[in-house]
Design brief:
Helix content: 25-40%
Bound molecules: zinc ion
Number of strands: 18
Distance between the termini: 13 Å
Radius of gyration: 25 Å
Largest sheet: 8 strands, mixed
Number of helices: 7
Shape: elongated
Length: 408
């Protein structure tokens, strides 16, 4: 399996301007190629192939207007063309329904929140004996190695984020590390008052440091909205918002890592709600930051499951998990959000709204045959790892293997 490892890097002022030049050149190459593809499209011509675009790039470098492109590593420019290819492939796959729909590739701007360039093996980048990152035409950049790389990476992406921080992002091959099998299974519900509710009744909130950081971010954003456009104060506020934003994202990621590792260690199979089911009516809540956080968390669960021999099952959102009694299966109709506890009219069970939903998620995934209140009994016959969660009558239920690279 391939995973991404990110490390903070600290380029000197000189190296920063070399990197800025490389970001700029990659952007120009990307935008030129995008313009060429758009022109071909509006003239009803076939798209120029990557080979043609690459040949054009070599020619254009010889012209005086674009001669400065030769001042950065040519690999970086070739990779910018690859990025455009990928962006188009994702766009078309979205149209074909192979993945969530996304917009057509757009022009990159100097003002984008995130700038990046990629060096592949043939760029001859390296990690020096002294632990620095040697980049062609940039130099040896200081790296803060927060953990060890499990294997030699072949490519490195250098990223500048909105908060002005630089990162080196490596793609590395990691070995599978199966954990000893266990009988425990769990269903997770994305909570309203809590981050997640487990089908065993545990409610998990975001840690206080994250909530505090989120509050600070809201304050900074309010502050920014009051500043006049184009003023120096607004620029200062914008940077502050970006920094606070980065801190919140880091804190959230740390929390997600901790929780996902724990759940994977403790359970053989985990059922989660899939919020990305296409064409599903989505509530305002589901569109919130909460939602974005949830998909990051589910991604972590999935790649950790694949690596450690566990199963993650996604349940379609259409399952009325909050309406059905998890004890007798009778559908009690929709319940307004303020109803936190209800009694089943058919069997008399008293349910906590969130826990009932988490139990239903576990049941829908085929992880538990029956459940009573907050108590989920493990199935008497534990499903084989490969079979868990695959029910012929539930088309939306699928075990998803980790494809390619999951962002860490
Ligand atoms: Zn009931």
């Amino acid at each position: 399996m391939q995973l991404r490892y990110n490390f903070r890097i600290y380029p000197t002022p000189g190296q920063r301007s070399e990197l800025a030049r490389a970001f700029g050149c990659a952007r120009v190459v990307y935008n030129d190629a995008l313009a060429a593809r758009r022109a071909a499209h509006s003239n009803n011509q076939s798209y120029p192939t990557s080979g043609e675009l690459s040949k054009r790039l070599t020619e254009v470098k010889r012209t005086p207007e674009r001669a400065w492109l030769a001042e950065v590593s040519s690999v970086v420019l070739q990779q910018a063309l690859r990025d455009l290819d990928t962006a188009y492939r994702n766009f078309f796959d979205g149209l074909r329904g192979k993945r969530p729909r996304m917009g057509a590739p757009r022009f990159r701007s100097r003002k984008d929140r995130r700038q990046s360039i990629r060096f592949t093996a043939n760029a001859h980048w390296s990690i020096t004996a002294g632990g620095k990152l040697r980049l062609p035409k940039v130099g040896d950049v200081k790296v803060k190695w927060s953990r060890q790389l499990p294997s030699d990476p072949s490519t490195v992406t250098v990223v500048l984020d909105a908060a002005g921080r630089y990162f080196a992002s490596f793609v590395v091959e990691v070995a599978d590390e199966p954990l000893p099998e266990t009988d425990a299974v769990v269903g997770l519900d994305l909570g309203l008052s809590h981050f997640v509710i487990l089908s065993d009744g545990t409610k998990i909130s975001s840690p206080r440091f994250l909530r505090r950081a989120e509050k600070r971010l809201k304050r900074a954003q309010r502050n920014l909205s009051r500043k006049t456009k184009g003023s120096a104060n607004r620029e200062k506020s914008r940077i502050k918002v970006a920094r606070t934003h980065a801190r919140v994202a880091d804190a959230r990621k740390g929390f997600h890592h901790q929780l996902s590792t724990r759940l994977i260690r403790e359970n053989q199979a985990i059922a989660v709600e899939d919020l990305c089911v296409k064409g599903m009516a989505r509530t305002r809540l589901a569109k919130s930051v909460h939602d974005a956080g949830w998909s990051q968390f589910v991604n972590m669960l999935e790649y950790k499951a694949a690596r450690h021999g566990r199963t993650v099952v996604r349940i379609g959102r259409f399952e009325p998990t909050s309406q059905v009694c998890s004890a007798c299966g009778v559908k009690g109709g929709p319940k307004p959000l303020h109803v936190r506890e209800w009694t089943c009219g058919a069997c008399g069970s008293i349910h906590d709204r969130d826990i009932n939903a988490a139990v239903n998620i576990a049941k829908a995934a085929g992880l538990v045959a029956s459940a009573c209140g907050a108590q989920v009994r493990p199935p008497s016959v534990v499903a084989q790892r490969k079979e868990a969660g695959i029910r012929p009558d539930a088309a939306a239920v699928s075990t998803r293997s980790v494809e390619g690279i999951s962002a860490l």
